[in-house]
Amino acid sequence: MQIILNGKPIEINDCSKACDLGDYDIFVRNGYGIDSKSQLCDGDSIVAVKKGQMPNEDNLKQMLFARNGQVFLEKLDKACVCICGLGGLGSNIAAMLARAGVGKLILVDFDIVDPTNLNRQNYFVQDIGLKKTFATQRLLKQINPFINTVTYDMYLNSENCVEIVNNADIVVEAFDNPICKAELVNTILESTDKIVVAASGMAGIGSGNTIKTSKVLNRLYLCGDSETETKEGVSLVSPRVNICAGHQANTVIRILLGETEC
Amino acid sequence: MIKINGELKNLDSISLMEYLNNYGYNVKVVAVELNGKIVKKSDFENTCLHDGDSVEIVSFVGGG
């Protein structure tokens, strides 16, 4: 029978088990890790990994996304998502989408990394003083060297945002300031036919269960609890910001895979 | 009757801008859809809400 092993078709004996494929430690079939004694079937696509060994570039891509599943890889690889703002939300969303295998990310932020960012944003001490676009791009390449990124080190507003998001399938609003959030969302919804995934209400240490995703307008998905704003005494803390970022990233992936309901 | 965020309301003839101001919305942080279509902020003043209209108002708070 024939199977695909690490992207290449091979002939194997009927009744072969995963361990018969060679000296590997990890076997993944259809996004699921299978036991080395698992029976293989004709047409299986198997990603097999030898622990402790750096794979060649061809195999690396297969292995990076093995646990996502093949459907993921094909659909997300063609997608382009624009992330507007690389703070607590955007820097974490970018990393999640890179791990999921989104092919292209447009990254927009005007700011540089400062020490007060590190409590929730996906940066490191070594990034302090760097442009957030640069630091995020560098991190993404370490997560997924196959990702295509375009960066814009600029302040996005109603005058320039339409041109920047032009090539994206989905726009992620990941700003901090509520007036900027509304301005971006309004402009994109008014002037393009794109879907926007925005966030509102993720400050404080309230229950993570109050953060949810809703389809609030025809082309607008909103993640958050809709009310907990940051102010003196109500800080932005990593877990809740990350829960919200996770909602946004998950919504983006669901839409790209054709799941448009929340 | 006008449906606002899924809730039926009995309102006298009112502009969108008046509604938002009367009901405590900060116009700078909202996005509004009238009968499924996004309303430009510059049109809030001259957009009148009529019987049977359906309005969705989204308000943003800070943090990210």
Polypeptide structure, described:
The complex is a heterodimer of chains A (262) and B (64). Chain A has 262 residues and is of the alpha/beta class. Chain A is built from seven helices and twelve strands. Chain A has helices at residues 57-64, 70-77, 90-100, 132-143, 161-164, 178-191, 238-256, and strands at residues 2-5, 8-11, 26-29, 32-34, 45-49, 80-84, 104-108, 148-152, 170-173, 195-199, 212-217, 220-224. In chain A, the strands form two sheets. Chain A has a seven-stranded mixed β-sheet with strand order 8-7-6-9-10-12-11, sandwiched between helices. Chain A has a five-stranded mixed β-sheet with strand order 2-1-5-3-4, with no helix packed on it. Chain A is elongated and about 65 Å long. By secondary structure, chain B is mostly beta strands. Chain B has one domain: Ubiquitin-like (UB roll) (Roll). Chain B is 11% helix and 36% strand. Chain B has one helix at 16-22; strands at 2-4, 7-9, 14-15, 30-34, 37-38, 48-49, 54-59. In chain B, the strands form two sheets. A five-stranded mixed β-sheet of chain B has the order 2-1-7-4-5, with no helix packed on it. A two-stranded antiparallel sheet of chain B has the order 3-6. The mean pLDDT of chain B is 96.
